[in-house]
Description:
The protein is an alpha+beta fold. The chain has one domain (6-108): Ribosomal Protein S5, domain 2. It has helices at 13-22, 57-74, 97-117, and strands at 24-27, 31-37, 45-48, 82-88. It has a four-stranded mixed beta sheet with strand order 1-2-4-3. Helix 2 (57-74) crosses helix 3 (97-117). The longest helix has 21 residues, at 97-117. 20% of the residues are buried.
Amino acid sequence: xxxxxxxxxxxxxxxxxxxxxxxxxxxxxxxxxxxxxxxxxxxxxxxxxxxxxxxxxxxxxxxxxxxxxxxxxxxxxxxxxxxxxxxxxxxxxxxxxxxxxxxxxxxxxxxxxxxxxxxxxxxxxxx
Length: 127
């Protein structure tokens, strides 16, 4: 994965747990995403999980690959200081590529709008 290095991935279980516990949730017919603002100016980080109930490992991996590639192509558009954990649904396996893109673009619009309306954490610290 040359275009999806470790520096942009969530790898540790405790980081996944923090995103689930402290973050917000957005759902659509193809996936659920948990996201949390870290409060730093580092780039966004992404995690992907797939429940075993979706199917065997071949199916789960194929679903994750499809979603990961769509996210990778839009990685530069995600706001900084954000952790995102994607939980794909089984419907993503048979969804046309354009539908995955459409749902991901809607998520991006929502995240950017939330980021613009949220107070800046850096300006609230005393100098």
